[in-house]
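Exam revision sheet. Question 4 asks you to relate a sequence to its structure. Input first:
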Amino acid sequence: MKLIYEIDFSALSAEEKMEFMRSLRDSMKESFRDNSFSAELLAQTLIFTRWWNSYKYMAPAEPTPQILETAIELLWDFQEGKCSPEIFARFQKSFSDSALEILTGDDGELNEDPESDAFYREYFGGWEAISYNVFLSDLCTVLEEAVSGKITWDAVEGVIDGDIGDTMIDFFEPVFKKESGGYYASELDRREMEAYNTPTFARVITLLQQDMRAALAGTPLSELRVRYQDEYLFSPEESAKISDYR
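Answer key, structure tokens:
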């Protein structure tokens, strides 16, 4: 079986692309099975850094949450040994406790942890960046897994399938979309197949695979960190098209 980052996604049939996506998370886990946790975490860091570089130009009508940039930078610091495990774990807890309130309205953890509550008030109070909620949720998972030492690839799958393929693709490609009401199973299959078969989605997968290979190439972290300051999912100009995004 080919490793996921060795597959030519563009060359697959529409049906094969559907199968590729339906087994995405398991395929990513299997492709990194013989690699270290640090390699897996680096791969996710590269992927999310690329994505953040584009996300921060989206939804120009909303404020760009600086705390998301801070979280990405601290993730790099943690891997480079510039941030202790204790400090990183404390940040992760406050970040996740705050995100839980934003995403679900559950403030139980904030009420029980004064440090998390103060963090929330400083960085998340009056959150108006609804377009960033999916990214926030999945970045939480990345930080949690960095602390726990176990990578599930749920976060990568979540953004690709639940954000890019389900919503962003409409800003770039004409794919089947219902203006109101939910999708029947057959309609959802049609939409997914059309989305996965677009040039834009193929580019997304190609960049994902590129980041996975980069994580395994043995390049020094400091060099990758500098390089990925200018790596994008969509260019700033393309990202600006994603306005009024929910």
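Marking note for examiners. The mean pLDDT is 94.
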